[in-house]
User: Fold this.
Amino acid sequence: MNKKFFVFFALLTCLGMLLGNITIQIKGEVKPVNLQETTLSSVSYVALKDFSAIFKAISKEDRSDNRLYLNLYDEQFIFLENSPYYTLKAVSYNMHYPLLRKGESLYLPSVFVTEQLKTHFPSLIQRKGSTLQIAKPIDNSVKTIVLDPGHGGKDPGAIGKKLKANEKDINLAVALKLKNLLEKELGVNVLLTREDDRFVSLYDRTRFANEKRADLFISLHSNSSKSTTSRGIETYYLSTAQTSDARAVEAMENAVVERFEGGSEAKKKYDDLSFILSDLAQTEHLENSNNMAFNVQQNLISGTQSIDRGVKQANFYVLRGAFMPSILVEMGFISHPEEEQLLVNEEYQDRLARTIFEGIKRFKFHYDRIRNT
Assistant:
């Protein structure tokens, strides 16, 4: 019996060595958090993903030369896989143990966390007994996304030529699916300008996004044309329309103001485009909007195999005054008989939501790195 107890105790001891923890107290937080350790080649390591989650670090791997770029507290560390050395501000440091890869995951030596970080950030990181006390990490990552299902309520949007489907219903269905993916897989807070069949003015949609301090704004629509042969997917960001097709879509989406918001007088509450574009902050958002539009458009075409109508610029009222990266996605032509059938199909709506999600995810990764460095 004693022998069995001894073996059991030995196993627990080994398990403790394999599953040790580094206790970290974030200043301002009530409870400490544990950074799990694991033993690799008889040395204690921590998973990069676990480290990044606690320290809000942004990392980028360059597989071409096995480098890892780690951004933390407004500084960038550069590691080389299978090497104990890293650089900070062009100075080389030795961790004594190498950065290791196990499958698709990278691992940092625990000593980097417990000993070396405090030498680089003495005012931000201190060792207090067995606890590592750290300043609250700076996190400018995307946390809140507003999805805008176009039209709704008394405004049906475009109506299908064959099935007489209402655009407003398709937009909402895809938005709800996209919301679920973003919350479940990216862990962000997702808000909708409407969650049911109700009318919301274009002005109130962007005002909602601004009031909620959204980091991204994505408006979802289904396209329409007088020609039943027009088909494909296109993504827009705010600017003056560059082509006749873009101007036609712009006019169609903006017609909501005159039809449902009080006629020509209602236009006065929408800011002049030239004023918005003259604002430096908005110009910065336009550049990021362009990047997000390209990421979403690329993934949509790859995932749906639809006709690529490209990324375009237009003066959409719904994008005016949204002081964050903003795009408008035209998910297909409800006026095209075949595309209308696709747009009302739940499996195709799932595919649209998934591919838009992948585009947002890709953009968010790069955007977060920019905002945190």
